[in-house]
Design goal:
It is elongated, with a radius of gyration of 22 Å. The chain has 2 domains: about 100 residues, no CATH class; about 55 residues, SH3 type barrels, CATH 2.30.30.40. A hairpin with a 6-residue loop joins strand 7 and strand 8. It contains 6 helices and 10 strands. It has a 3-stranded antiparallel β-sheet with strand order 6-3-10, with no helix packed on it. A 3-stranded antiparallel β-sheet has the order 7-8-9, with no helix packed on it. Strands 1-2 form a two-stranded antiparallel sheet. With about 170 residues, the protein is an alpha+beta fold. The model has no long low-confidence stretch (mean pLDDT about 95). It comes from Fuscovulum blasticum DSM 2131.
């Protein structure tokens, strides 16, 4: 969404707390973007009580704002936040996004995002169970496959064998 559209929707203020300075869009997958101030984006530590503004933002009619508030309340370890989240009534669209399983992100040992078909390099010698060999450090594994239900595992061919490799032992090339 264009910045002008976000400014028009929000009235030129942060969609969480109502602040008017330093506003920037923040992505809320898969819903879109919300307009937030530096404190609500996490660019600076928020003062005590700042997040209480979410109690008002929870009543937004904009589904993407509802989802963003719902997720932020879940991240706060405060009794009032849990109570506010449980009391939220999400639009059907926001509820569908909230109920959708989070997409798994496969990341290498350095935190780089891995994708289907990437090439990775082993950063450690790995004994391969049941195959009677050790995959050596520095070995390139081309055309990896992502294990769909486990973000800590990928699959690839090493010495002609298809093996499962823990992402903590690879780096993206």
């Amino acid at each position: 969404m264009a910045m002008a559209d976000l400014m028009a929707r929000s009235g030129g203020v942060c969609e969480f707390c109502g602040a008017g300075e330093g506003l920037q869009p923040e992505d809320v997958p898969p819903a879109g973007e919300v307009l937030l101030c530096p404190l609500c984006r996490g660019d600076a530590p928020a003062p005590a009580g700042h997040w209480r503004a979410l109690e008002g933002a929870a009543w937004s009619e904009v589904p993407v704002v509802q989802l963003a508030v719902w997720r932020k309340l879940a991240a706060l370890a405060e009794p009032w936040a849990t109570e506010a989240r449980e009391g939220m009534i999400l639009s059907p669209e926001a509820q569908a996004w909230a109920d959708a399983p989070a997409a798994l992100e496969h990341r290498d040992s350095n935190g780089a995002l891995l994708a289907q078909g990437d090439t990775v390099v082993l950063i450690k010698d790995l004994p391969v169970k049941g195959a009677n060999f050790t995959a050596k450090r520095g070995t390139a594994v081309r055309g990896i496959s992502l294990v769909p239900d486990n973000a800590a595992q990928i699959e690839g061919r090493v010495e002609g064998q298809r093996i499962v490799i823990l992402t903590e032992f690879v780096k993206k090339r």
